[in-house]
Write a structure and sequence with these properties.
mainly beta, 5-stranded antiparallel β-sheet, 1 helix, Transp-assoc_OB_typ1, Molybdenum-pterin binding protein Mop2
């Protein structure tokens, strides 16, 4: 997948919380730090995001997207 964003951080999902519409995904990155991405529940389910998955946090402007 090609993407224009260049601020990607590789990490591992620490926690997935699914709400009615949105999902909160906590990603541990190398520093050691944790990034929380708030994405739609539909996106979290389509990516089958689960604790322990290796993912990238792609940061663009004021948003954080999750790539798996």
């Amino acid at each position: 997948m090609a993407i224009s964003a260049r601020n990607g951080l590789k990490g591992k999902i620490e926690d997935v919380k699914l709400g009615e519409v949105m999902a909160s995904i906590k990603i541990a990155v190398d520093e050691p730090a944790v990034i929380t991405a708030v994405i739609t529940r539909e996106s979290a389910e389509e990516l089958s995001l689960a604790e322990g998955d290796e993912v990238s946090a792609v940061i663009k402007s004021t948003e954080i997207m999750v790539e798996k």
